[in-house]
Amino acid sequence: MKRFVVLVSGRGSNFKAILDEIQKGNIQGEIVAVISDNHHAKALDIARDAGIEAIFGNAKSEEYPQWLLGTVQSYEPDYVLLAGYMRIVPPEFVSAFPQRIINIHPALLPSFPGLHGQRQALEYGVKISGCTVHYVDEGMDTGKIIAQRAVPVLEGDTEETLSARILKEEHQLYPAVVKMLAEQE
Ligand code: GAR
């Protein structure tokens, strides 16, 4: 059974979507810890309620990068899943888990990397956007793409309406990719 550590910063709806599929028995894997740089992240409550170790790490501390690496390593994960984790992972972290860190991004990469992918898409005026699951490398949302889903950008869309349309796809796409990873050798 594959072991997953999930890094989050907030709401945790992608984490929840993956957890639901594990609990239904559709993904043969285990989330062994959820780590957040935000003490108030709803994701931590979701983890605690599910009996999963929920850990806060203070990103303002100088030791945070070392602490994060050591803590994640102590869980011996097969994969590290970034699910709304709003920080760049340091190069030492990336090299400690080569091709083992996965992220979901709310735009069709390589378009609109970084923060507010949905807002960037709206401001640019594209007619199609979506979400991307990709491997994490040292760059900003530049790692190899695993899967994407597209959604239309509609007349009158706001950041909220577009984000909601993309999020619905994220909740399908991320668990599907995790299922695939769990089934790999
Ligand atoms: C999701 O839309 C995810 O794609 C995005 O943050 C949201 C987190 O929602 N991630 C990024 O923008 C990463 N740069 P969630 O906490 O409910 O899963």
Distance between the termini: 10 Å
β-sheet strand percentage:
15-25%
Taking strands numbered 1, 2, ... along the chain, how are they ordered across the largest sheet? Answer: 3-2-1-4-5-6-7
**Main sheet characteristics:** 7 strands, mixed
The Cα radius of gyration reads 16 Å
Mean pLDDT equals 97
Helical amount: 25-40%
Silhouette: globular
Structural class: alpha/beta
Structure, explained:
With 185 residues, the protein is α/β, with parallel strands linked by helices. The chain is 37% helix and 24% strand. It is built from six helices and seven strands. A seven-stranded mixed sheet has the order 3-2-1-4-5-6-7. The protein binds glycinamide ribonucleotide (GAR).
Structure at a glance:
This protein has 185 residues and is α/β, with parallel strands linked by helices. The protein is built from 6 helices and 7 strands, in the order βαβαβαβαβαββα.
